[in-house]
Structures are given as structure tokens and as C-alpha cells.
Write a structure and sequence with these properties.
Elements: H1 2-26, H2 34-38, E1 39-44, E2 49-54, E3 57-64, E4 68-75, E5 94-98, E6 111-113, E7 133-136, E8 142-147, E9 161-165, E10 168-176, E11 183-184, E12 196-203, H3 205-217, E13 219-220, E14 234-238, E15 243-245, E16 249-256, E17 264-271, E18 276-284, E19 293-300, E20 308-314, E21 327-334
Parallel strand pairs: 15-21
Antiparallel strand pairs: 1-2, 2-13, 3-4, 4-5, 5-9, 6-7, 7-8, 8-9, 10-11, 10-12, 14-16, 16-19, 17-18, 17-20, 18-19, 20-21
Length: about 325
């Protein structure tokens, strides 16, 4: 009998030990998402912005000549040393943040304002679209961009901005005289006097995708209040993510009252390549001057042969201050 009791006690102890080991295994750290391993969060407390910097890119904080503060996010394979300003080798992939501006002209060559460009950049904040530019190759591809704000972010100066330089392989530049129309050497080229520049080459799609991911993650911080997550401000019921949509596209959901201004808020439909298909407004279906959730609806008509795109909801921001902007991108499939 005593032996039987000892046997039962032993079984109980082993059972408890195994149970404890099982619980310990369940509580072990779970693998982190791949994105967290391949990027690092960066925040500038001085200039009030944050971004995700991917693996293979580095960060530089310092000054350009004239004591102009600069932050670079740059491809670590670049052989030159930062700081990087506005005029550099087109084969370099980097972003230059200039909170106080730099007092020099932007990149040379043909350009279009963001307002007149028929594509878009993946941003979480609004721009001065008339005074922000993309710089174009002869094949129409953007190889660089200069972003300006309607109202400067906290601590920034009026002429502060962000410059993006996509890597161009096999870059070649030509210049044509404003007087004769004939090609002249680049060292004699004077665009300020009307000489025309043309750029040729192949924009690296890999670097472009990486730099656009940094842009998409970049947002500005209001130092006077805690930042609210976008998912706590707007919920889209229709269309759902990756839904197949056709024209007219019915839109439905709810948002906090302060997402709207005068009961409306902007919404855009773009293709996967960034071409703007339509720009409309969603309308609040009730009293919008509240901090509670308010239903909204809208409708967009469009025509495209592309397969995928995004529905982009923007908070109505009458102040124009980028720290008050919020955007929600819903991926969709075109029928």
C-alpha cells in the first residue's frame, strides 16, 4: 500500500513538472514580425517627425555648409560620406530632410509640380502641391522630388523641405543652348539663362520602392498632444482591404467627428503605380461637430485598365499643418 502511495505521488510530481514546463514554453517570446527585424524606428525630437528606416539604409544627423541642419536617410552602399545636400551624383539613393532649407535651387532638369503631375507619392501628410515638384527623366520617370509644406511642421522654417533622390543607373545628361538649340558641354550649361537639360537613364525600381516606403512611414508629431493612431480615428466598412471594386465605387464607414471639416473629408482613388483616378469627398451622415463616431458615405466613379490600386482617406485639415494630417490607405483590386 505504501509503495502504491509513493508511486501515485511520483506520478503527480512528474505531471506537475511537465505542466509547468508546458506553461513556460507557452510564455516564451513569440517571433517578431519580419518588418520589425528589417527596419528601425527613427524619431527626431528636435524636428518633430518619425519614420521607419529599412535595413541597408543609414541615418546621418548634422549640418550642411552655412549651418543648415540636415538629416539623411541613405543607402549604406554609397561610397561617398554624408552629409548629402541637393546636388549630388544621380546614382545615389537617399532622402535629405532640411528643416530650415538650404538656400540653393533644387535639382536641375525638367520638372512638374505635384499639382500638375498625373501620379502621386505615398505620403501620410499633405503638401503645398503647387510648390512641390517631381524631376523627370526623358522617359517620364521621376528621378527626384522636392516636397514643401502649406504650413511648416513644428520648429521648421518656411523654406524647409524634404528631397528624395532615386538611384539612376546608366545616368546621362545633355544640355541644349537657349540661343542655338544645339547641344553644348555640360560645364557650359546655364539653366538659369534658359539652357535646356535632358536626363537619361534607368531609375532603380528597388531603391524607388525602398525610398517610397520610408516616405509612406514618415509622419509629423504635434508636441502639444499625444498622437492618435489612425485606426482610432476612422473605420472603413466598404470597401474592405483587397476587395474587388468596380465603378461606381460605394464607400461607407465611420470616423470621429474631428476627421471632418464642414461635414466632409477628402478621399482619392489611385492606381498601384500612383496615378490619380479620382478625387472626391466623403460626407458625414449626421452631426460632425463631436468627438464621437459619425457615419459617412461617398461614391467614386473611375476608369482604369490597371489591376490594383489604393483608396486613400485623408483627414480634413483646414490648418494645413502636417502634424494634424492623417491618412488611411485601403488596397483594392479593380474589376
Amino acid at each position: 500500500m505504501r509503495a502504491l502511495i509513493f508511486l501515485l505521488l511520483g506520478l503527480i510530481i512528474i505531471s506537475c513538472r511537465n505542466s509547468g514546463e508546458s506553461e513556460q514554453r507557452d510564455e516564451s517570446p513569440k517571433p517578431q514580425p519580419e518588418s520589425s527585424k528589417n527596419s528601425a524606428s527613427y524619431t527626431s525630437a528636435k524636428w518633430h517627425f518619425s519614420a521607419e528606416i529599412p535595413q541597408g539604409f543609414e541615418i546621418f544627423e548634422g549640418e550642411l555648409p552655412g549651418e543648415a541642419p540636415v538629416i539623411n536617410f541613405y543607402d549604406s552602399s554609397i561610397e561617398k560620406q554624408p552629409p548629402f545636400g541637393i546636388h549630388n551624383d544621380a546614382s545615389m539613393a537617399y532622402i535629405t530632410v532640411l528643416p530650415k532649407g538650404f538656400g540653393v535651387d533644387g535639382p536641375g532638369g525638367p520638372r512638374k509640380s505635384i499639382q500638375d503631375w498625373d501620379e502621386d507619392l505615398p505620403l501620410s501628410f499633405n503638401l503645398d502641391r503647387q510648390n512641390s515638384y517631381v524631376y523627370l527623366m526623358e522617359n517620364g520617370q521621376p528621378w527626384a522630388a522636392a516636397l514643401r509644406f502649406q504650413s511648416p511642421p513644428p520648429g521648421w522654417k518656411e523654406y524647409g523641405g524634404i528631397y528624395i533622390f532615386y538611384q539612376v543607373d546608366n545616368f546621362r545628361a545633355e544640355c541644349f543652348s537657349s540661343n542655338t538649340g544645339e547641344e553644348i558641354p555640360m560645364d557650359q550649361c546655364n539653366p538659369m539663362e534658359g539652357d535646356a537639360m535632358k536626363f537619361y537613364g534607368d531609375v532603380s525600381e528597388e531603391k524607388k520602392t525602398t525610398l517610397n516606403a520610408i516616405l509612406e512611414s514618415l509622419y509629423f508629431i504635434d508636441p502639444s498632444r499625444e498622437r492618435e493612431e489612425t485606426r482610432d480615428l476612422i473605420k472603413v466598412e466598404m470597401p474592405q482591404e483587397n476587395a474587388t471594386v468596380s465603378s461606381p465605387l460605394e464607400i461607407k464607414g465611420e470616423a470621429k467627428g474631428y476627421w471632418f471639416f464642414e461635414a466632409t473629408a477628402p478621399v482619392r482613388l489611385v492606381t498601384g503605380s500612383g496615378k490619380v483616378l479620382a478625387e472626391k469627398y466623403i460626407e458625414a451622415q449626421g452631426e460632425w461637430m463631436t468627438e464621437d463616431w459619425v457615419p459617412f458615405k461617398g461614391k467614386i466613379e473611375f476608369d482604369t485598365k490597371e489591376k490594383r490600386g489604393y483608396l486613400i482617406f485623408s483627414r480634413a485639415n483646414a490648418s494645413g499643418k502636417p502634424e494634424h494630417d492623417r491618412m488611411l490607405r485601403i488596397p483594392v483590386i479593380f474589376d
